[in-house]
Structures are given as structure tokens and as C-alpha cells.
Specification:
The protein is built from nine helices and seven strands. By secondary structure, the protein is of the alpha/beta class. Strand 4, helix 4 and strand 5 form a beta-alpha-beta unit. The chain binds nicotinamide-adenine-dinucleotide.
Amino acid sequence: MGALDGKVIFITGGAAGIGRKCVEAYLAAGASVSVMDCDRTGLDSLAEEFAHLVTFAGNVRMGSDVKRAIGNTVEALGKIDVIHNNAGIASPSKSLDETSEEEWDNLFSVNLKSVFWTTKYGIEFLKQTRGCILNTSSLVGEIGQGNHAAYVGTKGGMNALTKAMALDYAPFGVRVNAVCPAGVWTPMLRKWSGEQPEPASIAQYLDGIHPLGYCPEGDVIADVAVFLVSEAARFVTGCMMPVSGGAELGYKR
Ligand SMILES: NC(=O)c1ccc[n+]([C@@H]2O[C@H](COP(=O)([O-])OP(=O)(O)OC[C@H]3O[C@@H](n4cnc5c(N)ncnc54)[C@H](O)[C@@H]3O)[C@@H](O)[C@H]2O)c1
């Protein structure tokens, strides 16, 4: 028996990176999965590889797209037990004063306002199933990061929102948690590496920030995500779960 047998999971940004690893893990644990992503090619390759999956092309910035994808999910799969807000962007690598208004608005729309949309259109379905919400946040929302002010702002906001939502929806039996990775090798991280002042030394740097000694792939996040959305975590809510190889620990040089 799988840990997620019979569950219906709606995930954003599931066509690549951490989201894709979560989709694979959710399916392996017995769930039916609905994936919303703006990358049609990525969605097609996902649908080719896996059965028990529905996909919707759409942009999480747009309330109308989110509303349609959630409505279609319930139509196709009958209910929603889990909303996993995973879609996110990290660019630009800039301090706040260097960030343009457009860059700020884009980051906040994709990374944070998307949670507003999925909650607005999805919470009634979660109340019906006494389901849960999982947010892919980031360790930097807790500890900060140089040269990424707007991104860090979105993830700090996501952490605060996770706690506020956990309180608001607890009376309905709906849990709200976040996973907080440090570095994870994904298309986003590879793009980010290329934008850094010394891309060649980035792999070594990324291994070094994790006391466990290496920068992982998305499977480490997916395994924790399966736990947090499963019955095994039935008494866990409002939790920012670091999945960081200890990156937040100890004094830094
Ligand atoms: N990779 C890391 O090191 C790392 C670390 C901490 C947190 N995170 C967080 O993990 C999440 C996933 O990151 P990733 O590294 O897997 O990224 P990725 O770029 O590899 O994958 C993100 C996916 O989200 C989709 N997406 C992006 N914008 C979208 C939009 N507006 N509408 C719909 N879909 C959209 C992309 O098409 C892609 O399939 C993000 O929220 C990110 O902030 C990543």
C-alpha cells in the first residue's frame, strides 16, 4: 500500500526540477496528480512518461488560469486532497536598489501571489477532504541571502503566510506546511549558476554550503514532501521544514 493511495494532488511547476521529482514521488506513493505549469513541452514529456496524471498549461500569475486548472482538476479527478505550491522563479540576482519594479512584481506574482490564487480557488475543495497545502519555500526565507533581496522577500513572505494559513485553516482540519531547501540541482539552479560572477566555482561552493557535503537533486525534497502531505504528518502544521543538509547550522566564516 502506498502512503498516498487514493489522494489527489494538485501541484504547480511540476514539469521540471523539484516539482517534477515531487510528481514522480507522489505517483509512486499511489496518488493521482494534476500538474499546472507554463511549460507546455515539459508537460507533454511528463504526460508521455507517466499515466495517472493530468496536466494543465497555465501561468500561476494569472488568477483565471489557476481557477480553470483547479476546476478542471476536480472535474477530471473528482476532488483535491493536496495543493502543492511549487512554481517559482529566482532571477534576478540583485540587491533591492538594483531590482526593477517589473522584476519585483514578477517575482512576487509568481512566487507569492500564486499562493493567494490557489488558496482562493482551492480551499473549499480542501475543506471537503480535510486536505493540506504544501509550499515549496526556501531556507533563504529564514536566514536571508546576499544579492537576492526580492527573491528572499517572496520566500520570507511565503513562510509567514504558511503560519498564518495554518492557523486560519486548522479549524477545518486543513494543514499548511512548507519545505525549505538550500541548494538543489534543477534547471533553475543551473541557470542561476551561469549568472553568478564565477560560474566555474559554483558547484564547489554549492557542495560546501551543505554540511552533509553535497548539493542534492530534487529527490531529497520529494521524499520529505510525500511525508508532509501524508497521514504520517497528520499532526504537523505551520512547519517550515528545512531539507538543507544542515545549511542553516553553526557560525559562518
Ligand atoms: N533549486 C533550488 O536550489 C531551490 C532552492 C530553494 C527553493 N527552491 C524553490 O523550489 C521551487 C522549484 O524550483 P526549481 O529549482 O525546481 O525550479 P525550475 O525552474 O527547475 O522548475 C520550476 C518549474 O516551475 C514552472 N514555472 C515557473 N514559473 C511559472 C509560472 N509563472 N506558472 C506556471 N509554472 C511556472 C517552470 O516552467 C518549471 O517547470 C521554486 O519555488 C524555488 O524557489 C529551489
